Amino acid sequence: xxxxxxxxxxxxxxxxxxxxxxxxxxxxxxxxxxxxxxxxxxxxxxxxxxxxxxxxxxxxxxxxxxxxxxxxxxxxxxxxxxxxxxxxxxxxxxxxxxxxxxxxxxxxxxxxxxxxxxxxxxxxxxxxx
Length: 129
Prior knowledge:
By secondary structure, the protein is an alpha+beta fold. It is 19% helix and 9% strand.
């Protein structure tokens, strides 16, 4: 009989552990909480991402952009302790953009929103916020 493996199963050479699958959202079968995944919230108490907690994050979304659910991604980042703000172009009166918004005709309007957010949330070198 061969070793029972799931598609995408990743194990170290010589690892004989049973019940452990690796991948984007798989977790050990005896794990008390799921492995962190940007596609769903963690079971509480949630793990925190300490290395990102002091970095402001702006999640820019367009009307027709791809990339899953921006609301779910922002909620996940909040749960892991990040300072995150969703910037919807529609809230600024900009409609019709896709995920390559900085390559479209109205890229100056989009960049203005990004620049204003950066000016408000990111300290200039040598200054504190």
